[in-house]
Amino acid sequence: MLALESVTKRFGGLTAVRSVSLEVRAGELLGIIGPNGAGKTTLFNVISGYYRPEEGRVVFDGRDVTGRPPHEISRLGLTRTFQIVKPFGNLSVSDNVMIGALTRLRSTHEARAEASRVIALCGLGTHASARAKALPIALRKRLEVARALATRPRLLLLDEVMAGLNPSELAGIVDLIRRVHAEGVTLIVIEHIMAAMMRLAQRIIMLHHGEKIAEGTPAEVTQDRRVIDAYLGEEFTLAEA
Amino acid sequence: MPELRRHWAAAALFGAAAVAPLLTRDGFFLDSIVLILMWGALSAAWNVAGGYAGQVSIGHASFFGIGAYAAALVTTRLQQSPFVGMVLGVVVSVGAGAVIGYLSNRLKGPYFALSTIAFSQVLLIVASRWRGLTSGSEGIPVPFRPGLWTLGLGHLAWLYVALVVAVLYYLIEVWLERSRFGYQLAGVREDEDAAEALGIASRRAKVIAVTLSAALTSIVGTLWAQYIGFVDPFYVFSVPLSVRFALNSIIGGVGTAIGPYLGSIFITSLETYLRATFSGVKTGFTGIYLILYGAVLILVVRFAPEGITGIAARVRARSLRARA
Fold first, then answer.
1. CA-CA to A37 of 20 to 30 Å: which in A138, A233, B21, B180?
2. A110 touches B: beta carbon within 8 Å
3. Which domain holds residue B148?
């Protein structure tokens, strides 16, 4: 469904993503992990059209979308959420999600109905008429997911929707991601929280200093020496020895 | 009729203007209503860009001046109807609006606002220096030729012309609040990156909104030139004029359909009253209305930043709570 072919993104002298290739199959739930500054969000920005890569190609459904603007990519069925949430702050939750639904629907009535369905799915039902900026962070993260879902994506990129949540909120959003996946949406999930990732992802890719250093099932990746080094530092390895 | 209830304020306001001539035919009174409606419509036009699209321009006098000059030149040089000038003004303003719309995709916030000021100043210099075309800084007197087609009308007829335009602009804003494009534009205003992720071509939406705003401003510019009968480059392209378009909306309630008209009632009445009270014989006080005007603006922006509609919403919320 999605293929990255040796994608490189540089900012001046800094190479944020270095020759990363990966493939995502339809229906898959792929996890991307890596320490801060590993290039995870940059990779999302390249895939969703916010950055144009210096080298390499992004192919979605057999179509080269490298350098296409984000709205075109979104209309093709590939959208994303933002790590730093970007709600339409002065609008209601319902309006936020409805604007997402209007991507596929021309009638505001149908979009409103679709929005309330998605809002219910995402557990925001009691907050539908609240102003988006009045929501606590856990609900704003849900709103990000709801708004993206309303566009009926086939591939959805979730950028750290679990960060900063308490354990019960975390369980809620893990459950939501599972439901979205069960509805047939292909997912790529960026996450810091390894425990949650272990339970969710079918396959995990590890980025470090902009490079893909490991790929495999959750069990394989956690056994990988490079992953442990990158995450816990080489000192940890030494102390353990 | 929930539709009507939502628009009761507008219905009352426009209805009152429509029946006002039954009470009195006093020229000063009718003139005040025409001015309130025109300033309201101009601010409503500004509101399409500044409110609904979030592109705060302080250069909308550009489009007003283009509309005014187009009418003045077409009627005096070509002896054609001002409506021909209106169309010409709209065409030129659409072009100029597209330029400003393009700028809105390059520059954000205060930088965009400054660039719009610069744009209107360039037009001011062109209009005041290109003597061959515009008669330069002397301005152009617009001849009065009685008739609807020539827009040579009395106060009463002008009131209804202004009322039709005001109602039309109000309806355009109502459409902007509930149409697909309107919702998408609201998304772009709130967060462009998020809007893009939802498949909205944010740059295009902004250009469309700014261009529409420019065309609507230009139309009232044409009417204004015909109503006042004189086009002065230092007035029609001035920064205070651009500021006034913005302020009516800000005081009334930015991004709301009724806001520009509420702001216009407030500001136009205040200015007319202060001018009448503190000028003329008491020449020492000629400029004092500007000081009071400024003081009122500061108070509104400080204590009611969401404008008159914001105050109304707060009062309503409080009474609902009290009832609960």
1. A138
2. no
3. 2-323
pLDDT at B324 over 70: no
Which residues of chain B have a CB within 8 Å of the CB of A91? 186-187, 190
Cα–Cα distance, A122 to A139 (Å, whole number): 9
Q: Does B317 contact chain A (CB < 8 Å)?
A: no
The distance in angstroms from the start CA to the end CA of chain A is: 43
Output the pLDDT for position B1: 42
What whole-number distance in Å separates Cα of residue B141 and Cα of residue B128?
15
- Based on the structure, what is the number of domains in chain B? 1
Residues 6 or more apart whose Cβ sits within 8 Å of residue A237: A225, A228, A229
Q: Which residue has the tokens 């603006």?
A: B297
Highest mean pLDDT among A184-188, B108-112, B244-248: A184-188
The CATH code of the domain that includes B152 is 1.10.3470
Taking contacts as CB-CB distances below 8 angstroms, the residues of chain B near A81 are 197
Helices marked H in chain B: 2-6, 8-23, 27-47, 61-77, 82-104, 109-129, 131-134, 155-178, 180-190, 192-197, 202-228, 233-236, 239-252, 259-277, 288-303, 307-323
